[in-house]
Amino acid sequence: MRTPHIKNEAERGGKDHAFFALALNAAQEVIGATAPNPPVGAAVVSSEGRLLSVAAHERAGAPHAEALAIQNAVAEWGAKEGAKEKAEALKGATVYVTLEPCNHQGRTPPCTQALIRAGVSRVVYGVADPNPRVAGDGGKTLLAAGLRAELVAHPEQRAEAEAIIAPFAKWCRTGLPYVVHKIALRPVETPSEQPDAKWTSVPPAGQVTFSSEASLRLAHLERRKADAIVTGMGTVLTDRPRFNIRLTTDHKRTSPKPLYVIGEEERLKSNKRDYDNFYSWKTRQEQELGFTVRVIPTLLQALKELGAIGLHRVLLEAGPKLSKQAEDQGLWDERLVIRVSGDGNPDHITRHLK
Q1: How far apart are CA 135 and CA 219, in angstroms?
Q2: Is 66 a known active-site residue?
Q3: Among 9, 48, 58, 66, which one carries the catalytic annotation?
Q4: Cα(46)–Cα(66) distance, rounded to whole angstroms?
Q5: Were both Cys, which of 64, 137, 168, 293 would link to 38 (CB 3.0–4.6 Å)?
Q6: In this predicted model, what pLDDT tens digit does every residue of 302-347 receive, in sequence order?
């Protein structure tokens, strides 16, 4: 059954909201898979208001979201139109895309040209390209070609689109990745444990974690979104943590994920127990769990290196010492705090932006 024609602007606004939500959902699914490119989602809707396709940019070098959505729409729906030529399948269509279409040649052709060639009449995007070298070019090119190009009308959807590419935007401005600092806290159980504190991030003796299953699943989702993970030498030597993703599915990766350990590797040589402990842990991370491990003295050095190789989003999973370094130097952008109640109630989870 065909979707009815859009009758007025109020109806169009409602449909815009629904279709743009599909593009946002597609973009959310690829966060952590696309660096050095941003995560982007797109949806193609016919002139009659019928959804034709939804797609996302899956990895660097693969088609961009709007180009892939157009390709899929033409292949599937053009073939179903019978006598209608595939070349006319998208005539008058609207494309919803979370980021302003690119207008430059990189590893893939400009998306503006794909939209123009497809014959679509309208492009609704969530946020202007934050790259200062190209910002606004995509929208201007589409307008010059006679298409309607406009920001999505709903403020909450613009805000979500901006949040999705916030790591890419920071990287474009500063060359540094966006840092999500995850902290899990539990009540101090005895005065001798930490005399001057009510909360601690240190697990109880004999445990490596203390948060709930739901909180652990959230932490694993954050790992999925991260291009790299950073932790401290103290955390490694004390907890021997596994940073792989076990409570959700990971992206299909073509190379190991960087895992940076902040500390002095030379100091390990003076303590055989710590030396053996660290290198056995490192071997497992690299041979079994899909990481490449690098030890580096400071958090700032780590972030500069990760930014230099085009990574946008870092998950900082650290103990008290490295957490204080991040706090004192302002080397975080988003803080995810998980507080375990200690009385059987659900964990209290909050997010803070710097």
Answers
A1: 33
A2: yes
A3: 66
A4: 14
A5: 168
A6: 999 999 999 999 999 998 899 999 999 999 999 999 888 766 678 8
